[in-house]
Amino acid sequence: MEARDGGASTHETPPPKRRRGEEGGPARGEELLAEAEAALHEREGGVVADARGAKRTYSAFEKKRKANLEARSRHADDPERYMESELELHEEMQKLKELAGMPEQGTEFVRLQLIHSLVSLLAHENTDIVATAVEVLEELTSEDVREETGGGAQMILDAVSEAGGVEHLAESLERFDESVAEEAMAVFHVLSTVENLVEIKADLAERFGQTASLLEWLVHRLQKQEFDSNKQYASEILAILLQSSVKNQLKFGEKNGIDLLLRAIAQYRNKEPENEDEAEMLENLFDALCSSLLTQENKTEFLNAEGIELMIILFKAKTKVHGGALKVLDYALTNNGDAVERFVERLGLRNIFKLFAAGRGAGKGNDAVATEVRCVSIIASLLQCAQTRATWERIAAKFVESDYEKCAMLFDLIVRYSAKVRDVEEKLEEQLAEGAELDSDFVYLERLDGGLYTLQQATIVFAHIWSAGDGGAQERFRKLMGKVDMPPEYLPGVLWEMCDAMGETEGGQEQEAQRKKIKRLIINLEGSGV
Questions:
Q1: Percent of the chain scored above 70 by pLDDT?
Q2: Where are the alpha helices (DSSP H) in 163-228?
Q3: Rounded distance, CA 509 to CA 517, Å?
């Protein structure tokens, strides 16, 4: 919609009159100059941001909104009779958008209930009006405005939420035709506003996800072959909505989201992302899939959609999908015996152990470290969750090959990550000595991030191979432990700490079963004097 230049009136507004009794001089001259510039700006279609100018803009917007509502109600079948009011409304909304970008005006939008009016326009029949309303809301919730309004940001969010803005924003996406450039930009602004609101209050992610169609719209938008900024933004919003909400994760699975997300990822089986933005989008897709796999129901959906098979294909590829596929497999195989059996049946062992061997050694790049960490975690899940003795023996046998070469690799990894954990512990001890107050949860999480998690996973693998009873493997481990003077209680101690931490969380039956398995492994290690 083209807004008319210069506002609804062609008459120039004179500058404010000088009050009687005021003296001139340089200071007053500067005021007069500022007033004259403000008047000129307003005559040119701009907004004067002082109290009077803002009040005029707010009042004009409400008058035009109500006039358009009335005109549409009276002349619903005759667009020519209400189009004039629509043009005038659109023009006032452009001025409103300018005010919305001024932090000092944010709370005025709330006080005058303008946010409720803007949200109501998200249901307007004219998509130009809808798009402009979205832009105003985007400005009001932007990072720059939030930083300067302080508590005002929460007031704005509350007003948007109370007016039904969450639902209206989600529903508006269905109305835009992205083949039209202006409407494609409107979609971008909607997604930006969604992100702004979730940044103000993370809990809103669940409410957005539970709206009628947002998750479905996002995942269907990702099916388009062509890459553009809206496809990238859709991937980012999807990852945000699935990150921490079990309700959203479950709803996503119920709406066939797992299969559709796998289809979007499968587009990259034989091609690389063409630029950094597309690579970031692909990373978002993998992150969204990992989040969805935090529920057992979605792990079943993943298995039924042949996600294991696709990830094996992708992590074998020498492309940028490799790391993402490995990460997804790590999530999919955790506490999931059915997935472990499928992975072994589909000949995934050869490739995962090939990667494990390639990731050996310190001082490598971030990608190599990430690969090493994922491989160890996957191998631990394979051994922990194997449903049959035959499958378990097939996995354990990989450590016997090539004169127990992988036993040496595994122990080398244990030694390196033990050193990493010691380094973190020393830094934490220094902080405590300097008077820092660090609670036990913080300390444990710091140690996990610093290498303890990978040390735990590697120790689980060690315990399984030891428990297999192969004399050659045990002898190799004893020699390696002797070289570094590792005390016999060290590795059982790593696993005891892991069990204690698992016992303090609510992990359900699957986690309790894993905890019992780890205890049996500890008993085997302690019984043999490791």
A1: 88
A2: 165-172, 181-200, 204-210, 214-221
A3: 12
